[in-house]
Write the C-alpha coordinates for this entry.
Amino acid sequence: MGRNKKGSIVNISSQAARDGGGPGSSLYSASKGAVTSYTRALAREFGPDGIRVNAITAGMTSTRFHDDFTSDEIRKKVAGATPLRREGRPEEIADLAIYLASDSSSYITGANNDINGGIINSFNSNAQLGAVSYTHLRAHETVLDLVCRLLLE
Protein backbone atom coordinates (compact mmCIF):
# COMPACT_ATOMS: atom_id res chain seq x y z
CA MET A 1 0.00 0.00 0.00
CA GLY A 2 2.68 2.52 1.01
CA ARG A 3 4.97 1.72 -1.93
CA ASN A 4 2.13 2.40 -4.36
CA LYS A 5 1.51 5.79 -2.72
CA LYS A 6 -2.16 4.92 -2.66
CA GLY A 7 -4.43 2.94 -0.42
CA SER A 8 -7.34 2.90 1.97
CA ILE A 9 -7.89 1.64 5.49
CA VAL A 10 -11.44 1.25 6.76
CA ASN A 11 -11.84 0.82 10.51
CA ILE A 12 -15.02 -0.41 12.13
CA SER A 13 -16.13 1.70 15.08
CA SER A 14 -19.57 2.05 16.60
CA GLN A 15 -22.25 4.53 17.47
CA ALA A 16 -21.27 3.69 21.06
CA ALA A 17 -18.08 5.71 20.46
CA ARG A 18 -20.28 8.79 20.06
CA ASP A 19 -23.04 8.21 22.61
CA GLY A 20 -21.32 6.10 25.27
CA GLY A 21 -23.33 2.96 24.53
CA GLY A 22 -25.87 1.30 26.75
CA PRO A 23 -25.56 0.29 30.39
CA GLY A 24 -22.74 -2.18 30.91
CA SER A 25 -20.89 -1.27 27.74
CA SER A 26 -18.41 1.31 29.00
CA LEU A 27 -15.32 -0.69 28.00
CA TYR A 28 -16.76 -1.39 24.56
CA SER A 29 -17.66 2.29 24.10
CA ALA A 30 -14.22 3.43 25.23
CA SER A 31 -12.48 1.01 22.87
CA LYS A 32 -14.58 2.20 19.95
CA GLY A 33 -13.84 5.80 20.96
CA ALA A 34 -10.17 4.91 20.64
CA VAL A 35 -10.80 3.55 17.13
CA THR A 36 -12.49 6.85 16.23
CA SER A 37 -9.52 8.93 17.41
CA TYR A 38 -6.99 6.50 15.95
CA THR A 39 -8.71 6.85 12.57
CA ARG A 40 -8.19 10.61 12.60
CA ALA A 41 -4.57 10.28 13.75
CA LEU A 42 -3.73 7.68 11.11
CA ALA A 43 -5.36 9.79 8.39
CA ARG A 44 -3.07 12.67 9.30
CA GLU A 45 -0.03 10.41 9.53
CA PHE A 46 -0.57 8.38 6.33
CA GLY A 47 -2.23 11.05 4.16
CA PRO A 48 1.08 12.34 2.77
CA ASP A 49 1.75 8.79 1.53
CA GLY A 50 -1.56 8.72 -0.35
CA ILE A 51 -3.21 6.39 2.16
CA ARG A 52 -6.71 7.32 3.27
CA VAL A 53 -8.02 6.17 6.66
CA ASN A 54 -11.71 6.28 7.54
CA ALA A 55 -14.05 4.55 9.96
CA ILE A 56 -17.60 3.34 9.96
CA THR A 57 -19.54 4.18 13.13
CA ALA A 58 -22.44 1.78 12.87
CA GLY A 59 -25.64 1.84 14.86
CA MET A 60 -27.63 -1.26 15.72
CA THR A 61 -27.25 -3.69 12.87
CA SER A 62 -29.24 -6.88 12.40
CA THR A 63 -26.64 -9.55 13.13
CA ARG A 64 -26.45 -12.98 14.73
CA PHE A 65 -25.13 -11.29 17.87
CA HIS A 66 -28.33 -9.31 18.33
CA ASP A 67 -30.40 -12.37 17.41
CA ASP A 68 -28.71 -14.24 20.26
CA PHE A 69 -28.12 -11.55 22.89
CA THR A 70 -30.49 -8.61 22.43
CA SER A 71 -34.11 -8.96 23.44
CA ASP A 72 -36.87 -8.28 20.94
CA GLU A 73 -38.13 -5.54 23.27
CA ILE A 74 -34.84 -3.65 23.16
CA ARG A 75 -34.48 -4.12 19.42
CA LYS A 76 -37.97 -2.70 18.89
CA LYS A 77 -37.17 0.23 21.19
CA VAL A 78 -34.00 1.07 19.31
CA ALA A 79 -35.66 0.69 15.90
CA GLY A 80 -38.56 2.85 17.12
CA ALA A 81 -36.15 5.60 18.19
CA THR A 82 -34.46 5.55 14.80
CA PRO A 83 -35.90 7.97 12.22
CA LEU A 84 -35.87 5.20 9.58
CA ARG A 85 -37.68 2.92 12.09
CA ARG A 86 -35.50 -0.16 11.56
CA GLU A 87 -32.13 -1.71 12.26
CA GLY A 88 -29.33 -1.53 9.75
CA ARG A 89 -28.49 -4.50 7.56
CA PRO A 90 -24.96 -5.94 7.30
CA GLU A 91 -25.01 -5.35 3.53
CA GLU A 92 -25.50 -1.62 4.13
CA ILE A 93 -22.41 -1.50 6.32
CA ALA A 94 -20.50 -3.55 3.74
CA ASP A 95 -21.58 -1.20 0.94
CA LEU A 96 -20.20 1.76 2.88
CA ALA A 97 -16.94 -0.09 3.55
CA ILE A 98 -16.57 -0.90 -0.14
CA TYR A 99 -17.24 2.73 -1.07
CA LEU A 100 -14.68 3.98 1.46
CA ALA A 101 -12.11 1.48 0.18
CA SER A 102 -12.73 2.47 -3.45
CA ASP A 103 -11.38 5.30 -5.58
CA SER A 104 -14.89 6.81 -5.54
CA SER A 105 -14.05 8.19 -2.09
CA SER A 106 -10.57 9.38 -3.05
CA TYR A 107 -10.90 12.73 -1.25
CA ILE A 108 -12.33 11.36 2.00
CA THR A 109 -9.93 10.70 4.85
CA GLY A 110 -10.10 11.00 8.62
CA ALA A 111 -13.88 10.67 8.53
CA ASN A 112 -15.94 8.67 10.99
CA ASN A 113 -19.00 7.85 8.94
CA ASP A 114 -22.26 7.43 10.85
CA ILE A 115 -24.53 4.75 9.45
CA ASN A 116 -27.34 4.43 11.95
CA GLY A 117 -30.64 5.36 10.33
CA GLY A 118 -30.39 8.86 11.80
CA ILE A 119 -30.63 7.76 15.45
CA ILE A 120 -27.64 9.86 16.51
CA ASN A 121 -29.63 12.96 15.52
CA SER A 122 -32.80 11.90 17.31
CA PHE A 123 -31.69 11.87 20.93
CA ASN A 124 -28.80 12.94 23.09
CA SER A 125 -28.28 9.85 25.19
CA ASN A 126 -29.24 6.26 25.69
CA ALA A 127 -31.31 7.39 28.69
CA GLN A 128 -34.16 8.17 26.29
CA LEU A 129 -34.25 4.51 25.32
CA GLY A 130 -34.63 3.43 28.93
CA ALA A 131 -32.47 0.60 30.19
CA VAL A 132 -31.12 -0.35 26.79
CA SER A 133 -28.01 -2.45 26.78
CA TYR A 134 -26.84 -3.43 23.36
CA THR A 135 -23.19 -4.15 23.84
CA HIS A 136 -22.39 -5.64 20.49
CA LEU A 137 -18.84 -6.89 21.00
CA ARG A 138 -19.22 -9.36 18.19
CA ALA A 139 -21.88 -7.59 16.16
CA HIS A 140 -19.39 -6.40 13.58
CA GLU A 141 -17.96 -9.84 12.88
CA THR A 142 -20.85 -10.53 10.50
CA VAL A 143 -20.27 -7.20 8.76
CA LEU A 144 -16.53 -7.80 8.45
CA ASP A 145 -17.11 -11.29 7.07
CA LEU A 146 -19.45 -9.83 4.45
CA VAL A 147 -17.04 -7.02 3.51
CA CYS A 148 -14.19 -9.50 3.08
CA ARG A 149 -16.37 -11.78 0.95
CA LEU A 150 -17.52 -8.89 -1.27
CA LEU A 151 -14.02 -7.50 -1.68
CA LEU A 152 -12.66 -10.92 -2.70
CA GLU A 153 -15.38 -11.56 -5.29
About this structure: The chain has a mean pLDDT of 82. The longest helix spans residues 26-46.
